[in-house]
Structure formats: structure tokens, C-alpha cells
Amino acid sequence: MALIVQKYGGTSVGTIDRIRNVAQRVAKFKMLGHQVVVVLSAMSGETNRLIALAKEIQTVPDPREMDVLVSTGEQVTIALLAMALKDLGLKAKSYTGSQVRIVTDDAYTKARILSIDEENLRADLDAGHVVVVAGFQGVDETGNITTLGRGGSDTTGVALAAALKADECQIYTDVDGVYTTDPRIVPEARKLDAITFEEMLELASLGSKVLQIRSVEFAGKYKVKLRVLSSFVDINGSEGEGTLITFEEDSMEQAIISGIAFNRDEAKLTVLGVPDRPGIAAAILGPIADANIDVDMIVQNVGANNTTDFTFTVHRSEMKKALEVLAQVKEEIGAREVTSDDKIAKVSIVGVGMRTHAGIASKMFRSLAGENINIQMISTSEIKISVVVEDKYMELAVRVLHQAFELEKAAA
Ligand code: ADP
Ligand code: ASP
Ligand code: MG
Description:
The protein is α/β, with parallel strands linked by helices and about 400 residues long. Helices cover about 35% and strands about 25% of the residues. It has two domains: about 5-250, Acetylglutamate kinase-like (Carbamate kinase); about 260-405, 2-Layer Sandwich (VC0802-like).
């Protein structure tokens, strides 16, 4: 007997039929003698619908009330699944995050899980129940409802698996695993049987939404066995092996590049004609940090007449706020001009094999140049290279790189 946590995403519970399908899949695991905890998302489209409603009332909705609102989506699906399970003759109980006591900090809309009271869940499991928990939500220490950021049900799943010391956490979604890149953009993308934890962490943080980054962080911290699978395969067939997130790098087929991630989440800000003297980077980025704005990529170019141009990227939603801060900074440091551009995209190649291979960056840049795609910014780490390009070239860049690195072929 194993204890399994299964998380089903929005499309997997998008209709009553899909919810019945989930119930059957859960029943299959129960019949095999396993204990099953199920974590659910809201029906697909529901969270977006709720956010849109809020924005009809307030352009920037009150964060506390926003969490009260968006957490309702998951309350609907857990109750419906518990009913569907009972309809199949199984014992089942649904719980909201606050009923479990998934305690988070009070950072509304992006809260972090601090602790989980797993005792009651364990008692239910021992009594033969399937426990169905609402993903994406928690409660702060004073009882306010909180949510964990978009895609946060993945994190609820992995956090519960960690708290219950589950044998495996299975993330069921609408693709049958983690691919070399989003198969919606590159139909030739190849499913990976396994991917290292480090690579998955990079892919998630660079935009692959198949797993929320915090869920991968949790899996790493608590060594949760994590697998991505499809809920859309025939219920009577096998789920397949999906993709296992592995901590053992050495046993992997060593591809140099494992995957390509991309996002349109960032905006670029440039301070032009900055006097070139020590302390300038701090003078620009200090006030940005003080305003709680995270900076991602940074480039500084030496220009003419002892001046320099300073460029950095922030999350698109914080561009306006950053521009306000920079207007002030510009006066203080005597810069000439501040410009901004939110028509950018970041495309990244990721692979632990890069550590031992030279020439990957030049191959990446050559491939993009071959399609006349201009690179605006570059950043690298040991296992990734990211470039910023004009956003209309994002998909072309992903396809070109997928082909250049022959990711459709399995590593020899
Ligand atoms: P869920 O609602 O089940 O949480 P998501 O939409 O959040 O599902 O995540 C699954 C989607 O992630 C897939 O449909 C796919 O389009 C996208 N995706 C992006 N990058 C990848 C990748 N490398 N491998 C697989 N899917 C990816
Ligand atoms: N329903 C939430 C969202 O759409 C959480 C999730 O699906 O993981 O972001
Ligand atoms: Mg998701």
C-alpha cells in the first residue's frame, strides 16, 4: 500500500464528465489498495472569470477580497469530486485550505505555505476515505483566506505530499509529461521520461507553466517524488510513466539541452546618458529594490562622453511603478532619458549538459541570427542561457532553437 497525492489541473476537472473521469481514476488507485489524497484546481477558465469580475469593480482589486473571491473556484470542484467519488461507492471527504489548516503568510495573491496540519487528513485516510483538498489556497495565522499565486494548486499538491510523507506526488494535466518545450508551440516537441530537478526548476522559473516554480522548490526541499502525467488517457489503459522529476543527475541520458522555456512576462527599462561613475548601478537599482520591484536581467553599456546606458528588466505588471521610481532617479543622478519597452519576450535554453560543453551560446546566437532575430539582452548561468528578443519573434525563436539543438531526437 502506498500513499499517493494526485493533483488534477483545471482542464482535468473542466466539466462534469471530466470530474467523473477523475473519480474513476482515483477509484482505480483505491482498488489497488493505495491511500489517495486528491488536490484540485478550479474548472478551467474559472479563475480568470473571477478575476475579470473583480476588475469590473476595481481596476486594482483589493488583495484580501480577491483571495476570498478566487478561492471559491476550487471549493466548487472539491465538493463535486467528493460527490462523484461517493457516487462510485467510495468514502470521500472534501476540505478547503482553511479547513485543513494550510497555514500561509499573509501575502495575499502570492502567499507562501508555512505549515500544514495533516493529522485530520491522516485519520481520514486511515478510516478509508479519499481526501479531496482545494488547491491554490490557504489561511493566514489570523484566519484570512489567502491564495498561492497562479498555478498554485501544483504547490498545494507537493506541499501535502511533503507533509504526509507520501510515496509519490502525481501532477495530472492535459499533456502526458514534461516536453522539450511547450508542445502547443512546437508540435515536434518530445516528451522526456525524466528531467533533473535543477532543470525543471530553471524551466519553471523561466516560464514553462507545466509546473508552478514553488511546487518544484518544495519537491527539492523535501525530496518529494514528483511525476507529471496526463488525465486524458483512456481510463482502462495505462497512464504511462509520464515524466519523473529526478534528483539523480548521473543516471540520466545526458542531453546537452533538455528544454526551451519562454515568456512574455517582462518589460525592459533603459536609463540613457547616465554619468559613468562608481555607485551608479546602486543609485538606480537601490530605489527599485526599495519599491519592492524584482529585477531580472541587467546590462550596462559604456557610451560616449563618459556616459553609460543602463538597461534592466522587471515583471510587466511592475513596469509603471518602476517608471515612476526612475523619473525621480533620473533627476537625482542627472541622466538624460528613461525609456521602456514591454514588447519583449525571453527565450531560454536549459540543460545540465551545458556545464561540460562549450559552444552552446554561440550556436544559439548563430541560429537566431540565421532568422534575422535581433538579441536585445543576454544572461547566462551554468545550466541556462536566456535572450531577450522582440516579442513577435518569440515563437519563431523557440522553433528555430528546438530544431538547431535537435531536441525532437532522443539523446544518443
Ligand atoms: P493544469 O491546468 O493541469 O495545471 P497548465 O495549463 O497549468 O495545466 O499546464 C499544462 C500546460 O503547460 C500544457 O498544456 C502545455 O501547453 C504547457 N507547457 C508549457 N511548457 C511545457 C513543457 N515543457 N512540457 C509540457 N507542457 C508545457
Ligand atoms: N485555479 C488557479 C489558477 O488558475 C490555481 C491552479 O489552477 O493551479 O491559477
Ligand atoms: Mg497549472
